[in-house]
Amino acid sequence: MHSHPHTFSCSTSHLTKHYLNNAAPLKTLASLKKPLCGYCSNHITGTGVIFRQFPSGLKQINRRGAINSATEGQNSSTSEEKTRKVVEHICLLKAKVDLSDKDEKDMLDFLYTCQYQMRGILAISLGRISYQNLESYTHAVFMRFQKREDLAKFYENPFYLGVLKDHVTPYCHEFTYVDYESEVEDDILPIFRKGEEFNFGVEFILLIKFKDSSLGKAANDALTSFEKLLTEFPSLIVQATRGSNFNHGSKDYTHAVVIRFRSSDAFEIFMDSSEYKNIWRSKFQPIIEKKLSISFSVDPVGNELM
Prior knowledge:
This protein is of the alpha+beta class and about 300 residues long. It has helices spanning about 15-20, 100-115, 150-155, 160-170, 190, 215-230, 265-270, 275-285; strands spanning about 70, 85-95, 120-130, 140-145, 170-185, 200-210, 235-245, 255-260, 290-295.
């Protein structure tokens, strides 16, 4: 499959250059736990596949991003910040090996255009996965909806069904869907994933299947520990959400996490860190059946704000 002309890694941001030049060994996140400045102290986010994003609209700096999830027993009214529930949709594709550049571009462009043809889509991000994964998925689509009813209408929307029939199914031979409910800060920029912080970086998507015996307390404890780790590194992460998969047609994974990293360097620093490796080894490995992690670079060309 030929390389996509619109998908490429973004350059290192000024924030990343700062902590790369001044922080001591990159094998640990300890020196990055505190924000580097007043600007980055107000930004948090995260999750696991790398793809290009095509946002449009407001050009402002995000005041603050929330890392929250809708878990059993959680009451957002008791949180320090007011949050809003959102519904996250993930679709992974396996493209045929003979997919041409033109057909790939048309496929991604038509999928992206869905947001203009129906109500309820708050944000969309999509593109080619940047490295080989064990399941051989080639492309990823991430969408955010206001509520479950909007997602249900999306699945049945004639325009979307037409896009699948004419521009996706002919070029892809396998699909995986995961849907989950989560929470973000109740502010227009983090809800719609707008502003300068979302113009660049890496999208990371992590899909997990917990053992049946671990569903409940053990799984929630592992995810809560991981979420806490993410909130400690706003210098690396813009936004993160996680939740339980409620898509009844997809039983391969029970939970999902999506993290937007500030840059490819931030992504690599976090993934190579002892903190991440330790929490994965101690909290997750004993209680999961399988996992799938993918990532892609956000396309600066596709992020031109109107």
